[in-house]
Amino acid sequence: MSLLRSWIVGFGRFWYQYIFGDDWTLAAAVGIGLIVTAVLNTNHLAAWWVVPVVVVVMLGISLRRASRALR
Amino acid sequence: MTTTGPVTVLITTFLASAVEAIEMVIIVVGGGATRGWRSTLIGSASGFGVLAVVVAILGAALSAIPIGPLRIVVGALLLVFGLQWFRKGVMRVAARGFAGTNRVAQQEEAEAWTGPGIDWTAFALAFKGVTLEGLEIAFVVVAFGAGANQLSAAIIGGVGALVILVAAGLLLRRAVQRVPRSFLQLIVGILLTTFGTFWSLEGIGVDWPGSDASILGLLALYGATAAIYVTLERQRAFGLRPEV
Questions:
Q1: B228 is in which domain, residue-wise?
Q2: In this structure, which of A25, B5, B166, B200 has its CB flanked by the most CB atoms within 10 Å?
Q3: Complex ipTM, two decimals?
Q4: CA distances from B6 to B11, B26, B62, B128, B209 (A)
Q5: Number of domains within chain B
């Protein structure tokens, strides 16, 4: 039973690392960006630019935060 | 709905697999050289067996899902995973340039096994190295192959990278350690982020301007972003510019 539990915990950790990694805000921002894209697209508005902008901006914020934390 | 060519899929999955395969090979070759090859190879083979089952199950499951919803899911997963590698790649290239990996010390310090039967330390080391390093890549290969509808090309790219790096690791251990893994990780991060962005939005139903050509636009945007952030990180790290 404990072996099964440790396997489930390990599997959960793997997926957390896979999706959220070192900075969960990146994954959260991508999720919000995809939702905004879907809403704009449903309303027939150009939405292809939202996620690339989210990626570029959030990556810069995340890198700045990481380099500040290292100092 | 557009499709990505098999050559693009093969090159991307080959590079993505190579990033993780380098560490896998260093762990396995390091373990084999210090603790002995028999148990190390049995552990590696067991790890590859587990990976093959994972790829087969995932591949079969993903093949049964229609391509539209599949692209939202695998595109989003590749996007968040690629973005992490993109971030790590920028930080590592800014800090270390094109230096290779340094993960040899822990294997050099291991004690040699001289007893009979299986050396469970060598077995566990090789098994964990293969499954842990390989599991991430198995998901990337399957997700990328399924998203592009080119699962065979993705598996050939992934297995090809493993075979070449394992052979190189056995023949030229020092050379494998000098492969610029950080730079490779940055390139693959950019590629996965590009295709993740393209597929997830296609899955939602967004019309990309220029259709497939927008992949090149995304690559150029993310490549330029990487170059700018590496420069900024180097300036921050080495104080080449006064803080504003």
A1: 6-238
A2: B200
A3: 0.90
A4: 9, 29, 18, 31, 23
A5: 1
